Amino acid sequence: MADVGLNTRSLHAAAIAGGSVGDFIALMKPRVMSLVVFTAFTGMVIAPSGLHPALAAIALLCIAVGAGASGALNMWYDADIDARMQRTAGRPIPRGYVTADEALTFGVVLSIGSVLTLGLLVNWVAGALLALTIAFYVFVYTMWLKRRTAQNIVIGGAAGAFPPMIGWAAATGSVSLESIVLFLIIFLWTPPHFWALALYRTRDYERVGVPMLPVVAGEAETRKQIVIYSAILVPLAILPALMGFGGALYLLTSMTLGGVFLALALRVYRVREGREADRAAKQLFGFSIGYLFALFAALSVERGLTAWAG
Amino acid sequence: MADHERKETERRRRMRSIGIAVALGMLVIIFYIATLARLGGNVMNRPM
After folding, report:
1. Would you list the domain boundaries of chain A?
2. Minimum-distance CB partner of B12 among A17, A52, A113
3. Interface predicted TM-score (ipTM) of this complex, two decimals
4. In chain B, N or C terminus with fewer CB closer than 10 Å?
5. Nearest CA in chain B to A65
6. Residue A279: pLDDT band by 50, 70, 90 thresholds?
7. What is the average pLDDT score of chain A?
8. Beta carbons of A112 and A72 less than 8 angstroms apart
9. In whole angstroms, how far apart are CA A156 and each of A86, A117, A252, A300, B48?
10. CATH level 3 topology of A19-173
11. B31, A36 contact by CB (below 8 A)
């Protein structure tokens, strides 16, 4: 009881005091931002024309801030359901640390600032792609699809898939087949990644009425869809090696980790009851993050080694 | 508002102000560096 009293008191004090710098950083979803920055970095380093290192760093900063801004706008719009979901109840707005209006202002200012800075200092193709990414995440995914269709994260996943294209565009000023392949890898990776999470958070989504696939079509259908998407993703992830912008290290990484990805997806499909089922879904969710990091890391490392050797 | 709440409010407001100042300072530095990177030696080329 004493703890509850203390927490209520500190919550009240926090609400009066307003958000700390840390709360505003939390609004930007730093973990999501790290994946965005990393994939954008890869798109940038594998691009054929070299960008001045200072401009490359500025481009990455703009992409990170743009991604953070869309995260803040997402938290602003979803504050009502975030407060009722276990996974998101601790976010700054539901906790009362940051008001919805502050989050909206923060998100809008950073969105406009990041797009203008990227456009003015690097190039406008990259700036336009960043604007498209933010708009897609906020308007298409958050406001339109998320609460309406089970395909929310399939279509909305495009927002998370744009960063390597932005990185490529920052370096070259254009969009190419290679950057589209990187886009497709993340695009097809998103559904199995999020559905694995949704499988062990079904009740959370059910309670707030978000039509995630397990809620709408059932767990069995979700497990089937995870396997289907994984079976398309894993061969597609070999394409960079076949197209020549991924080397032996990439091929090895993509084939071995792809095999593990498929095995974990099949395990999710087979194990359907009790804690083991949750464990299988959690394993796939966790592994999928490492898988994407490893694919993009392999591409970056290879490019780094080539530059070092040459 | 109790005394400790007022102190906490002031502390957080001060930290937010410092945060905004750092962000604006970084923006100035970024534009300065980008100008040098884009123009290179031409940054000094100012024909009279």
Report:
1. 19-173, 176-310
2. A17
3. 0.85
4. C
5. B23
6. very high
7. 92
8. no
9. 22, 25, 30, 26, 55
10. Tetracycline Repressor; domain 2 (1.10.357)
11. no
